[in-house]
User: Which sequence fits this backbone?
């Protein structure tokens, strides 16, 4: 059979707070129960909001908005509190349709509702240039020095083990009221 091409005309998606009952669908985005459970706990404690993008209640992306102060950017916020956007992720086939931007805007709205007027994040400016450009287009700017955000173990396609050093820069934005 020859390959056939069809179009899906319009699909709507929903951005909402993730609930524990979404776990099965979240695992298709990132197969790591402990990560999601930790975030549910943070959300229960009022320390964070776990936001997701959904099509028919199937998760297609998420971001964790930590409401704790992002201490390292305080010198650049006039000592005003800054929330932290962590692990923004959209499933690959649905990237570049604006969903990631909408999740960022939803985080900004939540910050304003909580009287937090700075929002920040860490991004690897070389390995994740596309994400950095997206944040810049939404008004985020870099502050401070590049720093080691984490070291991750990986196994490459040949089965060799290695370590990845995630060197990141902080980006922040002041949102008007
Ligand atoms: C970074 C990431 C979350 C962005 O999500 P996304 O949904 O693709 O983001 P958007 O679609 O809102 O924006 C991406 C680009 O698509 C463009 N775009 C937005 N809507 C569009 C549309 N309807 N048609 C075409 N392009 C569009 C945006 O202008 C943006 O372009 P730019 O990079 O030149 O600014 C996604 O690529 C991802 O999950 N990456 C892996 C995880 C990751 O790196 N996360 C960031 C951690 S800091």
Assistant:
């Amino acid at each position: 059979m020859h390959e056939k091409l069809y179009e899906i005309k319009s699909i709507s998606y929903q951005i909402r707070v993730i609930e524990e009952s979404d776990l099965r669908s979240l695992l298709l985005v990132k197969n790591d129960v402990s990560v999601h459970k930790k975030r549910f706990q943070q959300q229960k404690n009022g320390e964070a909001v776990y936001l997701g993008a959904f099509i028919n209640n199937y998760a297609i992306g998420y971001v964790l908005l930590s409401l704790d102060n992002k201490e390292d950017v305080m010198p650049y916020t006039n000592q005003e509190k800054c929330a932290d956007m962590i692990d923004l992720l959209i499933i690959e086939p649905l990237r570049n349709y604006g969903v990631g931007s909408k999740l960022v805007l939803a985080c900004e709205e939540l910050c304003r509702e909580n009287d937090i007027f700075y929002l920040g994040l860490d991004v690897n400016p070389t390995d994740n240039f596309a994400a950095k450009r997206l944040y810049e287009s939404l008004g985020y700017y870099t502050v401070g020095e590049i720093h080691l955000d984490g070291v991750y173990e990986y196994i490459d396609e040949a089965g060799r083990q290695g370590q990845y050093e995630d060197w990141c820069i902080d980006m922040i934005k002041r949102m008007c009221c």
Notes: Residues 88-90, 95-101, 121, 123, 128, 130-131, 133-134, 137 surround coenzyme A (CB under 6 Å). The CA atoms of residues 96 and 151 lie 28 Å apart.
